Amino acid sequence: MEMSPKQIVAELDRYIIGQHEAKKAVAIALRNRYRRSKLADEIRDEITPKNIIMKGPTGVGKTEISRRLAKLVRAPFIKVEATKFTEVGYVGRDVESMIRDLAEVAVRLVKEEKLAEVETKARADAENKIVDVLYTSKKKQSGETPDKVLKQNLLTDLRAGKLDGQILELEVNDMPKPLEVIPGTGAEINIGDMFGGLFPKKKKKRKLTVKEAMKLLILEESEKLIDADSINTEAVKRAEQSGIIFIDEIDKIAGSGSRSGPDVSREGVQRDILPIVEGCTVMTKYGAIKTDYILFIASGAFHISKINDLIPELQGRFPIVVELNSLTYEDFVNIFTVPDNAITKQYAALMQVDNINLEFTRDAIEEMSKVAVAENETTEDIGARRLHTIMESLLEDVSFNASGDHPMIDVVIDAKYVKEHLSKQIKKHDLRKFIL
Fold first, then answer.
1. What is the pLDDT at residue 149?
2. If you average pLDDT over residues 170-196, what whole number do you get?
3. What is the three-class DSSP state of 134?
């Protein structure tokens, strides 16, 4: 959160091409959270996040911008689809479930951090337990070897991974599966937790490899070293103060002008979402969460409906509107080459598993970009998602024939190869110019 808006945009540029205005808007929103955290309590409580609506076609980076943003700050983040919610009184998910889901994510995030803090101590305790179990069976075979030396040798072999495949019998906690309170809602209870630990945890013997036992024991020992109550308290605080909820497909619940039939239900969902975005208190199993300071980012293509079709009160809670542009030829060329997780790099890494050294020439990337633009113009515009279709068609033969039982083979994908393997798509686009 201490990153400047320029630094945040630079980080987003590593994974997302273009859409500078949208990146700028979310970077400012994130920085404002940091600025707010440095203020006195009186003024801080008065400042609420400026929620954002991203408008643009599918596949241009709306979801990815929000997801990467949350990763940057290790903030609790969830993505929900507006179409999955129903208004109060109908069967389906209620809008408050998004806050309960955010709480779950926050708890998991904080717990991971706490587990990492105690991992060294937990690992040492787990190693000692495994050494004690192995020592019992090894003692008979060790002859006159002193106990201290034998245990040290076992510990050395354990840390070197030499004992990973060995089977041992171990007593571990029997973890009961949580029960779902109401099927389909996601709300669960754990019978053991209900009675506040009045009953001791059951143990059961299991046969495991040393490697499996190590993971299980590290987790068990870590659980002993962390305080569940402090995790829940911190998680609730983090969900309230730095949580981000991304509401996708918000255009699908916007009315189209009439006020009958399904539009009534859509408006009902909007009215249910409104108090969540405005600020209210939602009860979760970890405690009450105030939604006043959660950042909401909504997105939609708005092909059929318009932002103005949302109820005015909801529009007012999203003061920042940014429009994302359709991807151009230059954008596609950059998407193929610039990002750290570029699709060409992904496929090259996959093929290396089967001893194929895949290389894309510049003219091949340019030809694929032309095909992507033409496909999006003549059929449905699905943005960068079009590239997966192109890559699968292009590399179908290479992927099918690769087996890994041959030495490393160099495969160069050039413009000629692209034209030959994407000939159907190219021919279809060439024919369209003769249609009046």
1. 83
2. 56
3. helix
Give me the pLDDT at residue 190, please.
57
- Are 223 and 126 in contact by the 8 Å Cβ rule? The answer is no
CB 2 within 8 A of CB 34: yes
Q: What is the CA radius of gyration of the chain?
A: 28
DSSP 361-425: -HHHHHHHHHHHHHHHHHS---GGGHHHHHHHHHTHHHHHH--SSS--EEEEE-HHHHHHHTHHH
Which is nearest to 50 in space by CA: 206, 338, 277, 202?
277
Query: Which residues, 6 or more positions from 223, have their beta carbon under 8 angstroms from its beta carbon?
Result: none
Residue 185 banded pLDDT, cuts 50, 70, 90: very low
How big, in percent rounded to 5, are the helix, strand and coil portions of the chain? 55, 15, 30
Mean residue pLDDT across the chain: 84
- Judge contact between 411 and 359, C-beta under 8 A: yes
In percent, the amount of the chain with pLDDT more than 90 equals 39
Residue 346: is its pLDDT beyond 90? yes
81 contacts 207 by C-beta, under 8 angstroms: no
Residues 6 or more apart in contact with residue 201 via CB below 8 angstroms: 173, 174, 192
Q: How confident is the model at residue 232 (pLDDT cuts 50, 70, 90)?
A: very high
What's the pLDDT tens digit per position in 136-164? 777 766 666 677 888 888 889 888 888 88
The string of DSSP codes covering 227-270 is -HHHHHHHHHHHHHHH-EEEEE-GGGGS--S--STHHHHHHHHH
Kind of pairing between the strands at 52-55 and 320-323: parallel
What stretch of H or E contains 360?
A: strand 356-360
Distance CA 53, CA 62 (A): 10
Say what the pLDDT of residue 179 is: 53
Q: How far apart are the first and last CA of the chain?
A: 55
Nearby residues of 207 by Cβ (< 8 Å), 6 or more positions away: 167, 168, 169, 170
Distances (CA, A) of 349 to 134, 174, 343, 345, 410: 40, 40, 10, 6, 13
